[in-house]
Design a protein that fits this description.
20 helices, seven-stranded mixed β-sheet
Length: 584
């Protein structure tokens, strides 16, 4: 089977659904017009189709391993990374000041998704570096920027982030790693970190770790955490990788999937590091990286789903089983209604999730342009508060994108039938690889709590503004797509009422108890809206309209059950005593 990056989908969504033209109309991104963007996506697709996809199975069958203290990566990964590096794909959105392309996050998002679809294990590496680049651009000293950013942007050096410790997972404030001032502008970092994606490799000149640690006398909790840049090799006077730092990989985790991506336990023994941002400002600086990564992880889920979908579709077109139930059919299982239902579900879900992710990226780009004064920001006529829109969509993108990837990959196994359970087909790899995306960079439960908590602290204004936008479009669409538009309008009105209910709950636990279904409902309605946009733009009863009809008729109604669940409060959950969970 071959793989083909869905460039036409990206271009259609950018052109007709998420308003990419607004981005290219800003002064900051005026060079990133439709023609240039199309050329970049086409070139990135060639890399994915011809170089990265052939490495997909290698990562699973020849996993990364630690031998004599050295991490050895999967066969072909060094060559694959070299192609990524030489093509400049690590730094699509990075500042040209340090060698980046300076392109919109929207373009980066599409490229990251197609790379994840081609080979998720390897694509995770540049994603980590991208997040570190953004954190350093915003928070590092000029001296650190001058030394590290050119190397990271070029891909010569790779980046990681080190948050988690054995006793401090989602509760980052419980970490115990410590930092001591060396008196020369550097700090001695001591502690152990776990779950460090791409903690080391055998193909980059250096690996630079962003490490959260606590200075002596710092207050407890997240307010006492600072961020430090700790390289594997200390830069010499020329800014090149010099002598080894006091850190090492203790072990690599044995995982359900993503075997090609080395997940390390990292040990720091008085390692030399440099403070990034102010003392006690570690979480603020790290969240710059994490918000970037949450969009990227959502795209990992969508990408893995795309790979699973293409594999399932190819199998369904060639597998002959049973008598065709339709006249003039293909004679393969794609003729059967249930297989057709599964494939349509996969395709429709991916389109919805992809549209949400690209809308998220557009909002990020517009917020950056607005901050520079090159586009109307909050309060501008007809313009949303782009920063608030981006913040609202980030947890939705991460959770819905990864949930979609998991769902689609599992359906892909089912389409293969018994052969899906056989490892040689490669169908199961997608299901195993994508599963972690709902866990790392903040579990999807935490994303939903963020949505109903922080993201509704504005009284629900950002959420309601987006609902207003959906409703206005549905009203306009009644002229050409009356039935679909009516169903979307009804869904948005119900979603509005549920959002008002969430905002009215002063007991945060009542919100949290329904946060997962609320996020699922918001994503389900938003996906329906984007499908409606696609159908209206198509202007005929073509494939996008047919897919929109499928989604709106069959998948959209799930929002009703989700919202009924979301507004139950927390009383029934806590009516169950702890001992009530025990097996009788």
């Amino acid at each position: 089977m071959s793989f083909r990056a869905p460039v036409q989908d990206y271009e259609y969504i950018m052109r007709h659904i998420v308003g990419y033209d607004k981005v290219s109309a800003t002064e900051r991104f005026e060079e990133a017009g439709e023609e240039l963007t199309s050329a970049i996506l086409t070139e990135a697709a060639r890399l994915c189709d011809e170089v990265l996809y052939p490495l997909q199975r290698n990562g699973d069958l020849d996993p990364a391993r630690l031998q004599d203290g050295v991490v050895h990566t999967s066969k072909g990964f060094a060559e694959g990374y070299k192609a990524v590096r030489e093509g400049g794909w690590v730094s699509v959105a990075a500042s040209p000041e340090f060698g980046g392309m300076g392109l919109p996050m929207t373009v980066t998002t599409a490229v990251n998704e197609m790379m994840s679809a081609a080979c998720l294990s390897l694509a995770l590496n540049p994603l980590m570096t991208q997040g570190q680049i953004e954190a350093l651009e915003h928070h590092a000293s000029e001296q650190i920027k001058a030394i590290y950013l050119p190397k990271l942007v070029s891909g010569a050096w790779c980046g990681t982030m080190n948050l988690t410790e054995a006793q401090a997972g989602s509760d980052v404030g419980a970490l115990s790693s410590k930092a001591e001032d060396n008196g020369d502008g550097t700090y001695a970092i001591t502690g152990q970190k776990i779950y460090i994606s791409w903690g080391d490799n055998d193909f980059s000149e250096n690996v630079c770790h962003l490490v959260l640690a606590r200075l002596p006398g710092a207050p407890a909790g997240t307010k006492g955490i600072s961020l430090f840049l700790v390289p594997k090799f200390l830069p010499d006077a020329a800014g090149e990788a010099g002598e080894a730092n006091s850190l090492h990989v203790v072990s690599l985790e044995h995982k359900l999937g993503l075997h090609g991506s080395p997940t390390a336990v990292m040990q720091y023994d008085g390692a030399t590091g440099w403070l990034v941002g102010p003392e006690g400002g570690g979480m603020a600086a790290m969240f710059t990286m994490m918000n970037n990564a949450r969009l990227g992880v959502g795209c990992q889920g969508i990408g893995a789903g795309e790979g699973a979908y293409q594999k399932a579709l190819a199998y369904a077109k060639e597998r002959k089983q049973g008598r065709s139930p339709v006249a003039g059919g293909t004679g393969t299982i794609i003729d059967h209604a249930d297989v057709r239902r599964m494939l349509a579900t996969m395709r429709a879900e991916l389109f919805a999730a992809r549209s949400i992710a690209l809308a998220n990226a557009v909002a990020i780009d517009m917020s950056h342009a607005a901050a520079e004064g090159t586009v109307g920001g909050a309060g501008a006529e007809g313009a949303p508060d782009w920063a608030a829109r981006a913040a609202l969509l980030t947890p939705i993108t991460k959770a819905f994108g990864t949930d979609t990837g998991i769902k689609v990959a599992e359906i892909g196994v089912q389409v293969h039938g018994g052969m899906g359970f056989i490892e040689e087909t490669g169908a199961a790899q997608y299901a195993r690889d994508v599963r972690v995306t709902a866990i790392y960079e903040g579990t999807n439960g935490i994303q939903s709590m963020d949505l109903v908590g922080r993201k509704l602290m504005d009284g629900g204004e950002a959420a309601q503004t987006l609902i207003d936008e959906m409703q206005r479009f549905a009203e306009e669409a009644r002229a050409t797509r009356p039935r679909m538009a009516g169903l979307i309008w009804n869904a948005t009105e119900t979603l509005r009422e549920a959002t008002e209910w969430m905002v009215s709950q002063t007991n945060m636990n009542a919100r949290f108890a329904g946060s997962v279904p609320f996020l699922a409902a918001y994503a389900r309605v938003l996906g329906g809206y984007y499908h409606l946009c696609a159908a209206v733009a198509e202007g005929k009863d073509g494939p996008r309209t047919k897919l929109a009809r499928f989604y709106i008729n069959r998948l959209l109604p799930e929002y009703k059950a989700h919202l009924a669940h979301a507004m139950q409060g927390d009383a029934d959950l806590y009516a169950l005593e702890v001992e009530d969970f025990d097996v009788a």
